[in-house]
Design brief:
Blueprint lengths: L3 H8 L3 H6 L6 E4 L7 H9 L7 E5 L17 E5 L7 H5 L3 E3 L7 H7 L5 E6 L7 E3 L7 H4 L5 E6 L7 E2 L2 E3 L5 E4 L14 H12 L6 E3 L4 H8 L8 E2 L3 E2 L2 H8 L14 E3 L1 E2 L3 H7 L5 E3 L2 H4 L2 H4 L5 E5 L3 E3 L4 E2 L2 E2 L2 E2 L6 H10 L4 E5 L3 E2 L4 E2 L1 E2 L17 E4 L2 E4 L5 H10 L6 H12 L4
Parallel strand pairs: 1-2, 1-5, 2-3, 3-4, 5-7, 7-10, 8-16, 11-12, 11-17, 13-15, 14-16, 17-22, 18-25, 22-26
Antiparallel strand pairs: 6-9, 18-19, 20-21, 23-24, 26-27
């Protein structure tokens, strides 16, 4: 076999040539967030007219999702297990599909649907041994790359070289397209006073030595600001965001007490700003691993004292949550919420927290509701959540009857909506509150 430098030169082609090898009827999986191979996708859109019934499997795009523009759906059909700003409208209008799936089962689901013909990824330039990092969006790729018929990679020098299971050898890639592209950033949101209060309540449930799962957004960012006095925290999370960087640098997160991956912060993908990407670059203390590992409840539960903090769109008086649908429209997806809630519940000393503002739409809609909206899914069942947190306090649901749960939930609802929730309580439980 030729050395890797020879292989690289032989397989180094233009985007136009690389995408020309995609055929009608192919199933394609794409790396997401900052590892999205934008140059390859843009070329695929340019060649879309020659294609029919291409099935495109995707997660969270930080781009404009040009493959979902009206008129392309017969050529390129989008399938997503999680929707974002650039994809939810197309799905709502029937130009794409939503696939309910627990994130840790995503590779298995792709196999069940017939497998993947083409994998589109981004990679760093190869190191002296011929290995490229796939950056910060690996999740399902290590699980399926050996089964994929054709792998096309955009070689992007701007991509951080992230440690863990993110590496692929040049010899495993069929075509390489050299194209530098700025990594899109997720700008940090301004934390509101409501989110600060929620963050403080959540932080009060976190103890020294806990292992954390945190996401992105105002509430996780707020939680992080209240953890600067905590010690020996661990990080085992689906997604890494900017908020964890300062805690790791300050030593609050040091992973010393973890049972597995001790000494390492672990995630399956990362999305944030250049601050995060620079921190991840060549950092041996932070590793990415396949989603089938990171998000599997059995793996999560091997760490003691796992604290899982998630959010949702609404929670009813029984404690069941809708985290996916707004007014009948698929808004996001199941993602890893259930993976980590179940992992936390299985963890010795673990806690599953659902954190959300008490209202939406400038205070006109209560997020604590008597019943979930008609047609809304129960993303997380009532037996799964230990605590619900709003800016009005903490509702402890674990070990409580339906009557007791309803009282707890009403107590953390916005005062403007408590009377109607009390009225439902009285109808349901034949008891004045």
């Amino acid at each position: 076999m030729a050395d890797w430098k020879t292989i690289y030169q032989e397989r180094n082609v233009t985007a136009e040539e690389a995408i020309s090898y995609i055929k009608s009827g192919d199933s394609i999986s794409v790396a997401h967030v900052g590892s999205e191979p934008f140059v390859l996708l843009e070329e695929m859109v340019r060649q879309a007219e020659r294609l029919r019934d291409v099935h495109l499997y995707f997660l969270l795009s930080l781009g404009d999702a040009g493959y979902m523009q009206p008129g392309l759906e017969k050529h390129i059909r989008f399938h997503g297990i999680f929707l974002g700003n650039s994809t939810r409208k197309g799905v709502a209008e029937g130009r794409g599909e939503y696939l309910p799936c627990y994130f840790h089962q995503y590779p298995a689901m792709l196999r069940a649907r017939g497998g993947i013909d083409v994998l589109l990824i981004s990679v760093t330039p190869p190191d002296k041994h011929g290995y490229c990092s796939m950056g910060m969006g690996i999740d399902h790729i290590p699980d399926i790359k050996d089964e994929t018929k054709l792998i096309i990679a955009q070689v992007n020098p701007a991509l951080p070289r992230v440690m863990g299971n993110s590496f692929i050898h040049v010899s495993e890639i069929d075509y390489l397209v050299e194209a530098e592209r700025q990594i899109p950033e997720l700008a940090p949101v301004e934390i509101t006073e409501v989110e600060k209060q929620i963050g403080a309540y959540c932080a009060s449930l976190i103890q020294d030595g806990d292992t954390l799962q945190l996401g992105i957004g105002g509430i996780p960012d707020a939680v992080v600001t209240f953890l600067k006095e905590k010690n020996d925290l661990g990080l085992h999370t689906e997604m890494a965001a900017d908020g964890v960087v300062d805690l790791i640098r300050a030593g609050n997160i040091n992973n010393r007490r973890k049972n597995i991956n001790r000494g390492k912060s672990v995630s399956t993908f990362a999305a944030g700003t250049k601050k995060l990407y620079d921190f991840l670059d060549d950092n041996p203390a932070f590793e990415l691993h396949p989603v089938s590992y990171v998000n599997h409840p059995n793996v999560i539960s091997q760490n003691d004292n796992v604290v899982s903090i998630n959010s949702c769109i609404q929670v009813d008086l029984m404690g069941q949550a809708n985290a996916e649908v707004v007014k009948g429209m698929q808004f996001s997806g199941v993602g890893g919420q259930i993976d980590f809630i179940r992992g936390a519940n299985m963890s010795r000393g673990g806690r599953a927290i659902m954190a959300l503002p008490s209202t939406a739409a400038n205070g006109t809609i209560s997020k604590i509701v008597p019943f979930l909206d008609h047609g809304a899914p129960v993303t997380t069942g009532r037996a799964e959540i230990n605590y619900v947190v709003t800016e009005y306090g903490i509702a402890q649901l674990w070990g409580k009857t339906l009557r007791e749960r309803a009282r707890e939930m009403i107590a953390i609802a916005h005062p403007d909506f408590r009377e109607e929730l009390k009225a439902e309580y009285e109808r349901r439980f034949f008891e004045k509150l």
